[in-house]
Amino acid sequence: MKFPLLIVGIILIILGIVLWVQAVIISRIDKNITENKLLTTGAYAWVRNPIYSAFTIVYTGILCLQNNLILLVLPFIYWLFLSIIVKKEETVLEKTFGQEYLIYKSKVNRCIPWFPKG
């Protein structure tokens, strides 16, 4: 295995796991779902879909560990399909939370936590 891909893969896996833990466990997503609350703090202040993002980051890290650069096209294909799903979910969230969600949506990126919207 090439050393740079190994390091990148491990870093991505760790970052993805940290994001997932923040989104699910620390943010107590289960409590917010059962109480029908819009979660906009913690990981959800960085990205609107941190669980999907975390999965993609971990998945990309695992692909890096495979040492096959051709496989790295798969996360982009996954991202395209994910975008379709997320847009449908956002329609439901807009109906459920109204203006509160629209304001949140205007401030926080859909899937990329490191690049806030301008």
From TrEMBL:
Membrane-topology descriptor: Multi-pass membrane protein
Keyword Phosphoprotein: no
Coiled-coil ranges per UniProt: none
Pfam family, one: PEMT
Transmembrane segments: 6-26, 38-62, 68-86
Swiss-Prot/TrEMBL keywords: Membrane, Transmembrane, Transmembrane helix
Record localization: Endomembrane system
Record flagged with keyword Magnesium: no
Record protein name field: Isoprenylcysteine carboxylmethyltransferase family protein
Organism listed in the record: Clostridium butyricum
